[in-house]
Design a protein that fits this description.
Order of helices and strands: EHHEHEHEHEEEHEHHHHHHHEEH
Bound molecules: adenine
Strand content: 5-15%
Number of strands: 10
Number of helices: 14
Radius of gyration: 23 Å
Largest sheet: 6 strands, parallel
Distance between the termini: 53 Å
Helix content: 40-55%
């Protein structure tokens, strides 16, 4: 299995978060790092156990039928291993994978080019698939359903439609926003799965594995200390391993213990919940200026100087999952747990008594 990502069709993402160390979106500088620690098989891929079992069966069945796997859609917050899982599937199927992202498929020729370059059985991985434009979607429909492209030639009265057959392939789409996918596109995926946040134990295993690959000595306590502050997200855990390892090397003997990990994470201003300064600014704003909310996302974004998409895609999923933030039809509200976590003594009247 080889991973192919040609000149302009690799994953292109903007650097949303202000602190790339602890935000979960994928950014260019650590692509190589991620690739070198990425698990290549189900045995080394930690977590998502029920999803793995389902996928193993689908892969076995596809192999027995000698057919490509059904098109798959993975959704869930960034950094949980959607791309990694696609690579594992390709490895397991024994096929190549082409990796791209929706923003790189702006012009019809981008998507046509990549579809026509596919060989039988190959996997096409499209990240951020909810950002695909209408034209690209329309090109994809017949390609996904019946494996052909509808091409038009000529102009106005002389226009001709040409049906170009494609080899049978598997599309794996990934999105952080399943709700933004159009109905017709979503309906064309045979298998749809949500990736879940990782438990502390699972993250500690990811961290121990990564430390092993990077020749970093780490204790169980050290791995758990990092895991607890990694927001349920392996990409964050792996970045923190590097940062904490730097600290351990400069200030001590290089070994990551529980104490070293905690000291280093305190310096990075990552708190016991794994929140960074942006997350805390968001919660504090709602508490101090809006009595705990509700308040609209645009207002929050303007006040803390972040864009709406970063807040929705990067900050919020974990704050919601951790029970610190609530989404209501009238805007965002913080929970009593957020007051407690940030050491506020007084709850707004409507939330008193919820402790
Ligand atoms: N690195 C990132 N995600 C991982 C996972 N699920 N298992 C092992 N290592 C990982």
């Amino acid at each position: 299995m080889s991973i192919i990502a040609d000149d302009n069709d690799f994953i292109q993402k903007e650097t949303h978060g202000k602190n790339p160390v602890i935000k979960a979106e994928s950014i260019e500088f650590d692509k190589n790092f991620e690739n070198c620690i990425r698990p290549k098989s189900f045995d080394t891929y930690i977590g998502q156990s029920s999803l793995k079992e389902t996928l193993k069966i689908s892969i076995e069945a596809a192999k027995k039928r000698e057919l490509p796997l059904d098109h798959l859609l993975f959704y869930g917050p960034p950094g949980l291993g959607k791309t990694t899982l696609a690579g594992v599937i390709a490895e397991q199927m024994g096929v190549d994978i082409k990796i791209t992202s929706a923003p790189a498929l702006e012009r019809p020729r981008d998507i046509i080019g990549i579809l026509m370059s596919l060989k039988g059985g190959e996997i096409l991985f499209i990240d951020e698939i909810h950002r695909l434009n209408k034209v690209a979607e329309e090109i994809l429909y017949p390609a996904m359903e019946d494996f052909f492209l509808d091409m038009t030639t000529g102009k106005s009265q002389t226009v001709k439609t040409l049906r170009v057959p494609l080899p049978k392939f598997t599309l794996i789409g990934a999105t952080t926003k399943a709700g933004e996918l159009s109905g017709p596109l979503r309906d064309r995926f045979g298998i749809i799965h949500r990736l879940e946040f990782y438990t502390e134990d699972e993250l500690a295993q990811v961290i121990t594995r990564t430390a092993g690959i990077l020749n970093i000595e780490i204790t169980q306590e050290g791995a758990h200390a990092i895991a607890r502050r990694s927001r349920g997200t392996p990409r964050i855990a792996n970045r923190l391993v590097k940062r904490v390892s730097d600290y351990a090397l400069v200030k001590h003997d290089g070994k990551i213990t529980g104490d070293i990990a905690n000291k280093s994470l305190d310096i990075l201003k990552i708190d016991a919940f794994g929140l960074d300064s942006t997350d805390r600014a968001l919660l504090k704003l709602i508490i101090e200026k809006y009595d705990g909310g509700p308040v609209g996302i645009e207002t929050i974004a303007a006040a803390i100087g972040e864009d709406v998409r970063t807040i929705e895609d990067v900050c919020e999923p974990y704050l919601l999952q951790a029970g610190l933030l609530q989404r209501t039809p009238r805007g965002r509200k913080v929970s009593p747990a957020a007051y407690r976590h940030l050491n506020y003594k007084n709850l707004p009247p409507e939330q008193q008594g919820l402790f």
